[in-house]
Amino acid sequence: KADDIEWNQRKSIAFFRGSRTNAVRDRLILLARRSPSQLDARYTKNQAWRSVKDTLGEEPAKEVPFEEHCNYKYLLNLAGVAASFRLRHLLLCGSVVLNVGHEWIEFFYDRIIVKNRGRSFVESHLRVDDVLCYWRLLLKNYSKLITYRIQRVSSFKRIL
């Protein structure tokens, strides 16, 4: 989808969709309400949503497929209760991605090079097989550090 949208055809505003998970996101949503010509940021429903109180007094926005994020020149990535797992999807758009918050990081953040190379990095190094390889290696090395005998919980399903 990103290749189908020329830069000059994209909307010249910043865009964010996500659930309400921290105060930084609240400030962004409130700013967007004051500056809708510069920022399109709204909350979507999450599992905890009960009323408009949970989305700062407005009805939740519909979720927007990642492909449609590519219609914007500027995409915002904000950490929630952990690292925002949408970053690798946003980088594929070829848009300018503003990554806000450094409390939580994913394993590949230090490898991302600014400019047009974020998309290339995702396509080359964050394929499903690459991520599975990372986790396999991480768990294999972690298992070497465990000094106690692991007892398997019988109700857990063995996956490997």
Automatic annotation (TrEMBL):
Protein name as annotated: CAP10 domain-containing protein
The record places domain Glycosyl transferase CAP10 at: 1-149
**Family matches, as SMART domains:** CAP10
Species of the source: Anisakis simplex
Q: Which GO terms describe its cellular component?
A: endoplasmic reticulum lumen
Main localisation: endoplasmic reticulum
Tell me the function of this protein: Protein O-glucosyltransferase. Catalyzes the reaction that attaches glucose through an O-glycosidic linkage to a conserved serine residue found in the consensus sequence C-X-S-X-[PA]-C in epidermal growth factor-like repeats. Regulates Notch signaling by glucosylating Notch in the ER, glucosylation is required for the correct folding and cleavage of Notch.
Q: Name the InterPro entries on file.
A: CAP10, O-Glucosyltr/Glycosyltrsf_90
Keyword list (alphabetical) reads: Transferase
Q: Which GO terms describe its molecular function?
A: UDP-glucosyltransferase activity; UDP-xylosyltransferase activity
Where in or outside the cell it occurs: the entry states: Endoplasmic reticulum lumen
The family classification in the record reads: Belongs to the glycosyltransferase 90 family.
